[in-house]
Fold each of these.
Amino acid sequence: MNRFMTSILALVLAVGTGAAISPARANVMTFTGMPTNFFSGSYTEDGITLTDLNGYMAGSTYYYPGGNPGEYFDTTNYYGAPLRLTLANGGLFDLTSIDLRSFCCGPASETFTGHRANGSTVTITLSAPYVLSWVTGTFGSSWTDLTEVDWGDTDVALDNVVLDPAPPVPEPASLAVLGTALAGFGLLRRRKRKGA
């Protein structure tokens, strides 16, 4: 195959691969749109859903305004009621980091459990400093291919939940275009050999 044909093939592969698999960007839940009064159910922002499975939630300005703007504070009728983090579209994700602070009465900690697509789990306990002092808790390299993350409701406020959605599956139409282009190059090469 001559240099021109090789360049064309490389270009088709690059364009086809780029169309089939677009890079994912990080999703960040900042809680800036969360109601400041009590409510139950779930809250969704930037493709991330946080659900209180057995209680009530409230935006932080209900108690302590200030600090990180729009931070989240969870309150519940049943102390310890679980919270669940998922992607709104039900896809897989990697959990990167979360900001925490204690809501009341000194330092606190929160234990997070990640559920992976293969059925395994991963757990980490992050410490939160006292009221109005924030720390960023980071999740390690094992927090990948998650379907959901659960934790109990303790005296911890949350903000800036950062996760990376799993790369999208190549689109069938893009793969079909790429396959057609490759088949066409194969036919051109065969004709060239026959003509020689």
Amino acid sequence: MATRQIIVLLAGLLLILGAVAWIGVAVAQKKDPAKAGANKPDFEGWKYPGAKELGSGQGAGGFQAMLATTDGLDKVEAFYEKKTGEKLKPDKAGGHGIGGGAGEARVFQDDSIQPGVRAGRRPVVVRVLVQRAKGHDLTLVISRAKGEDHTHIALTYFPK
């Protein structure tokens, strides 16, 4: 009988600790507007205009979205080049680069070529940009497969 009382007591204690932790997170998010979604309007500006949202979410102070548009790859790249100030079309397939300084950094990769003996273009174009700027951290992946009707966009955005 004493064992059962100890188990019930421990279970109750765990429930109370879990509730206190959950309340602590809710209060912390209420006190910290960035965690509560106050910068969501900033994130909305990163979404490609008119794109269909395939999924999205927020947490850990950041936002993410999966989007698709019937607009061509070139048009989507042009929008994000203007938005980020970064070149997103490599000089040659497979192009890449890393740079930055003074608290800012950027990494660009084009994963559109096959390796090895059969080297050549893949049937999908994939462009990846990781940008650490003064006001945000951004990861952007743009892709379009040969014969598909949509350009896909994956965004992850953390305001600072």
